[in-house]
Amino acid sequence: MPERDAEGYLVEPADWNEELAQVLAQEENIQLNEDHWDTIRFMRDYFEEHQVIADARFVIKHLAERMGRDAQKRLFDLYPYGYVKQACKIAGMRHPRAWSTG
């Protein structure tokens, strides 16, 4: 298991893989489906391109391309304890310290 901080976030996002995502999702009591994978892959691609964690509004915009106006609600249905608490963790991001809410 790659190194994680006290809250369970990866210390090094490069250590992430899809198998690890499954383990992290299980710890959050989330059964990953295609919409989860869509958000996770978007977040990983965004991080690769920009070297920063995608703000939730970028993920919502991405989802809106497929889901329309329900994208924000859908994101929070996918990750009921919040974008930071669950989506960022499962996608292998470091804990975003500047963000206080998910």
Automatic annotation (TrEMBL):
Gene3D superfamilies: 3.30.1420.10, DsrC-like protein, C-terminal domain
InterPro entries, sorted: DsrC-like_C, DsrC-like_dom_sf, DsrC-like_N, DsrC/TusE
Organism domain of life: Bacteria
Organism phylogeny: Bacteria, Pseudomonadati, Pseudomonadota, Betaproteobacteria, Nitrosomonadales
UniProt-recorded Gene Ontology molecular function terms: sulfur carrier activity
Localization, UniProt: Cytoplasm
Organism the protein comes from: Thiobacillus denitrificans
One GO BP annotation of this record: tRNA wobble position uridine thiolation
Family of this protein: Belongs to the DsrC/TusE family.
SUPFAM superfamilies listed in its UniProt record: DsrC, the gamma subunit of dissimilatory sulfite reductase
PANTHER family in the record: SULFURTRANSFERASE TUSE (PTHR37010)
GO CC terms in record: cytoplasm
Pfam families, per the entry: DsrC (PF04358)
Keyword Cytoplasm found: yes
Protein's recorded name: Sulfite reductase subunit gamma
Record keywords, A-Z: Cytoplasm
